[in-house]
Design goal:
Radius of gyration: 61 Å
Strand content: 15-25%
Distance between the termini: 51 Å
Shape: rod-shaped
Pfam family, one: HATPase_c
Catalytic activity: ATP + protein L-histidine = ADP + protein N-phospho-L-histidine
GO molecular function: kinase activity
Order of helices and strands: HHHEEHEEEHHHHHEHEEHEE
Helix content: 55-70%
Protein name: histidine kinase
Strand order of the largest sheet: 2-1-5-4-3
EC number: 2.7.13.3
Largest sheet: 5 strands, antiparallel
Number of domains: 4
C-alpha cells in the first residue's frame, strides 16, 4: 500500500477511536447535564406544590392523617398527578413517612447512595435505573421510561434538610429531549472527525501524488542516466578500439609513405646522383652535345622526382577547410579530383547542409578524396559520383563508381580501413557495398550544428 493509503487507514482508525471516546464523554456530560436540569426543574415544581402541605418536620416525626389526605388529593389530581407515577417522603433514618402506596408507610429501608446524598442537600436523579431501590415494586411494572428524583425538603427559616421526597416521573419528553441532544452531539462529533480526516487525507494524498510524480520522474531520469552511462561505456570502448587500430594504421601509413618515397623519388634522385658522376660530365674531352644531353637527362630525372614528391604531398596536405561549409568542402574535393585525374564526377547536393565541426569536415573531405581515388584506380573512373543529403536527422555522404567491384568481406585496403577508423572514432557509421555493378561507400554522421 502507498504511504497515503497507510496514513488514511491508520488515521481513520485513530480518529474513529478518538471520536468514540470524545463522543461517549460528551454524551455522558450532556446526559448528566440534561438530567440535572430536568431534575432541578421538576423538583422545584414538586417542592412548590407539596411544601405548603407539610408540617414542621422538626417537631412532627410523623404525618397526620389530614396531611396524608391532602397529599393524596394533591398528588392524585391535576397536572402533577398526571406526571408522577409514585411518590415517597423519607425520614433521615430510612423510614417512609408517606407514599402513594399505603403499604409502604411506616416501613424502614436501608438508605441508598441517592437518598444519603439528598439528605446532604443534593438533588439526585436516575433514569430507568431501579435496581438499587428495594422499595420500588409498582414502579418496576410500569412499561415506560421513568425519571427518578430525590429532592431534599428544607426547613424554610433554617434551610436544614428535614426530609427527602422521592418521586418517579414518566420521562417521555425527557427521553425525546435526551435523544435529540445525543443525536446532535454524535452528528457534530462525527462531522468534525470526518472533516478532520478529509482535510488531513487531502493534504497527505496531495503530498503522496507529488512524491509519486517526483519518484516516477526520478526513476525515468535514473533509467535515462543508466542508458546514457551504458552508451558512454560502449562508445568509450569503441573509441579505445578505434584509437588502437588508428595507431596501427598510422604506422602502416608511415610505412607506405616511406615506401613511396623510397621506391619513387628516392630512386630517381639516386639515379640523378649517379649520372652526376658520368664520364660525359667529368671528361673534358667529351663533346658539348653529349654533355648537354646528359645534363638534360639529369634534369628530367630530377623533375620526375619532384613531381612524385608533389603528388605525395598533395595527398597528405589538407586545404583550408575549417571555415568552409560542408557543401563547399564536397565541391572542393570533387574539383581537386577532377583536376588531378582529368575525369568527370557527378556531384549531387541539396540546397543546404548543416554546419559541422572541424573533425567532421576533415573526415568528410578525406572520405570523398579516398573514395574517388579508389574509384579512379580500381574502377577505372567509370561513372564516378558523389551524393550527400539528410535522412532521419543524420547526414549521409556517398561515393559511387561503376567499376568491377570487390568482395568487402575479404579485402579492405589500407585507405578504406583508415577511413572506417576515422569515421567510427567520431561516432559515425561506415558502410561498403560492392558488386559487379560497381562500388558504393556510405558514411552516416550525427548532426549537431556548431554555433
Amino acid at each position: 500500500m502507498s504511504l497515503a493509503l497507510q496514513f488514511f487507514i491508520a488515521s481513520g482508525v485513530g480518529l474513529l477511536a478518538a471520536m468514540l471516546l470524545v463522543g461517549l464523554w460528551v454524551t455522558s456530560q450532556i446526559r448528566d447535564g440534561v438530567m440535572r436540569n430536568s431534575a432541578a426543574t421538576t423538583a422545584l415544581y414538586v417542592d412548590s406544590v407539596i411544601a405548603p402541605l407539610l408540617p414542621d418536620m422538626r417537631k412532627s416525626r410523623e404525618l397526620s392523617d389530614t396531611v396524608k389526605r391532602a397529599l393524596d388529593e394533591t398528588l392524585g389530581q391535576g397536572a402533577l398527578g398526571k406526571r408522577l407515577v409514585s411518590f415517597k417522603l423519607w425520614r433521615r433514618d430510612g423510614m417512609i413517612l408517606y407514599a402513594d402506596d399505603a403499604e409502604l408507610i411506616g416501613k424502614t429501608f436501608p438508605p441508598n447512595h441517592n437518598l444519603i446524598s439528598a439528605f446532604a442537600g443534593n438533588v439526585m436523579a436516575e433514569y430507568n435505573d431501579l435496581d438499587d431501590d428495594p422499595e420500588a415494586g409498582e414502579e418496576k411494572t410500569v412499561n415506560a421510561p421513568l425519571f427518578e428524583i430525590y429532592n431534599p425538603v428544607r426547613e424554610p427559616w433554617s434551610g436544614e434538610v428535614v426530609a427527602v421526597s422521592e418521586f418517579y416521573e414518566i420521562a417521555d419528553d425527557f427521553q425525546e429531549t435526551l435523544n435529540a441532544a445525543l443525536w446532535s452531539t454524535w452528528l457534530v462529533v462525527a462531522g468534525a472527525t470526518a472533516a478532520a480526516l478529509a482535510l488531513l487525507s487531502g493534504i497527505v494524498f496531495r503530498g503522496s501524488r507529488t512524491i509519486e510524480t517526483q519518484r516516477t520522474a526520478l526513476e525515468a531520469k535514473v533509467t535515462e542516466l543508466q542508458s546514457a552511462l551504458s552508451q558512454n561505456s560502449s562508445l568509450r570502448q569503441r573509441v579505445q578500439r578505434a584509437s588502437r587500430r588508428a595507431t596501427a594504421i598510422n604506422e602502416r601509413y608511415l610505412r607506405r609513405i616511406g615506401a613511396d618515397l623510397h621506391d619513387g623519388p628516392a630512386q630517381l634522385v639516386a639515379l640523378a646522383a649517379l649520372r652526376m658522376d658520368s664520364p660525359l660530365l667529368l671528361d673534358p674531352a667529351a663533346s658539348s652535345e653529349l654533355r648537354e644531353a646528359e645534363i638534360s637527362g639529369i634534369h628530367k630525372t630530377l623533375g620526375e622526382a619532384m613531381r612524385e614528391i608533389r603528388g605525395i604531398c598533395n595527398g597528405l596536405v589538407l586545404p583550408q577547410i575549417e571555415t568552409q561549409a560542408v557543401v563547399d568542402i564536397l565541391t572542393l574535393a570533387v574539383k581537386e579530383h577532377e583536376r588531378r585525374t582529368s575525369s568527370k564526377v557527378a556531384l549531387t547536393l541539396p540546397g543546404r547542409l548543416p554546419e559541422l565541426g572541424t573533425s567532421e569536415k576533415i573526415s568528410i573531405y578525406r572520405f570523398v578524396q579516398e573514395g574517388l581515388n579508389n574509384a579512379w584506380r580500381h574502377g577505372k573512373g567509370k561513372d564516378q559520383a558523389v551524393r550527400a543529403g539528410m535522412k532521419g536527422g543524420r547526414l549521409m555522404v556517398e561515393v559511387m563508381d561503376g567499376g568491377p567491384g570487390f568482395d568487402p568481406s575479404r579485402s579492405e585496403g589500407l585507405g578504406l580501413a583508415g577511413l572506417r577508423e576515422r569515421i567510427e572514432s567520431i561516432g559515425g557509421q561506415f558502410e561498403t557495398l560492392s558488386g559487379p555493378q560497381g562500388t558504393r561507400l556510405v558514411i552516416t554522421l550525427s548532426v549537431e550544428e556548431q554555433p
